[in-house]
């Protein structure tokens, strides 16, 4: 065999191998719907000395069930990290730079237009923060980096929801030393 024929055979075998391995993995649309989804509270203060970006912290399970249900996610400072001083305790938060609630993988089973979050209540150390929900953003806000999650963006300096331009409250209102919580009503329409 000549070199060209060998290259053609090698490419054909590679394509066949890849196609076989892809076909062996069931597609997400063919898989059974999830019973529930992980929902967590994401937070960072301006100094990045009180941070949670870990979806296993400040989380709860959201049921895959039509209709309205109320959930609460709570973040304790003891579970936060201090990104400036690795290994040291998180400082008290004097403000917010990132404050979001993410529902992971819910968009695998539902379209964003069929999901709605309402009745959002933010509490800092048990005290209710007055917020304007109309200035919050929600939906498929990270379509490229994490397309299967539904996000409630209360405020995000870096977010794609535009809340940096119109915060729902003065950022120093999100001041807390022990815990911050977000309660919301989730409505899954279909």
Topology:
Elements (H helix, E strand, L loop, with lengths): L2 H22 L11 E9 L6 E2 L6 E5 L3 E10 L21 E6 L11 E10 L2 E3 L7 E3 L10 E7 L22 E10 L2
Antiparallel strand pairs: 1-2, 1-3, 1-5, 4-10, 5-9, 6-7, 6-10, 8-9
3D architecture notes:
- This protein is mainly beta and 190 residues long.
- The protein contains one helix and ten strands.
- It has one helix spanning 3-24; strands at residues 36-44, 51-52, 59-63, 67-76, 98-103, 115-124, 127-129, 137-139, 150-156, 179-188.
- A hairpin with a 2-residue loop joins strand 6 (115-124) and strand 7 (127-129).
- The chain is globular and about 45 Å long.
- The protein starts with a helix and ends with a strand.
- Mean pLDDT is 87; it is low at 5-31.
What distinguishing features does this structure have?
single chain, 190 residues, mainly beta, six-stranded antiparallel beta sheet, 1 helix
């Amino acid at each position: 065999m000549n070199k060209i024929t060998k290259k053609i055979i090698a490419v054909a075998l590679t394509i066949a191998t890849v196609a076989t391995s892809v076909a062996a993995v069931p597609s997400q649309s063919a898989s059974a719907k999830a019973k529930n989804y992980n929902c967590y509270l994401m937070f960072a203060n301006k100094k990045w000395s009180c941070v949670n970006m870990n979806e296993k912290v400040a989380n709860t399970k959201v049921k895959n069930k039509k209709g309205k249900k109320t959930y609460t996610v709570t973040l304790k400072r003891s579970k936060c990290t201090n990104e400036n001083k690795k290994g040291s305790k998180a400082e008290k938060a004097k403000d917010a730079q990132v404050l979001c609630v993410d529902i992971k993988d819910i968009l695998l089973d539902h379209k964003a237009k069929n999901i709605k979050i309402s009745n959002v209540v933010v509490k800092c150390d048990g005290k209710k923060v007055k917020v304007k929900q109309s200035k919050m953003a929600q939906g498929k806000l990270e379509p490229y980096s994490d397309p299967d999650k539904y996000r409630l963006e209360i405020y995000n300096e870096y977010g794609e929801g535009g809340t940096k331009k119109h915060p729902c409250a003065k950022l120093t209102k999100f001041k807390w030393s022990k815990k911050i919580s977000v309660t919301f009503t989730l409505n899954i329409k279909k």
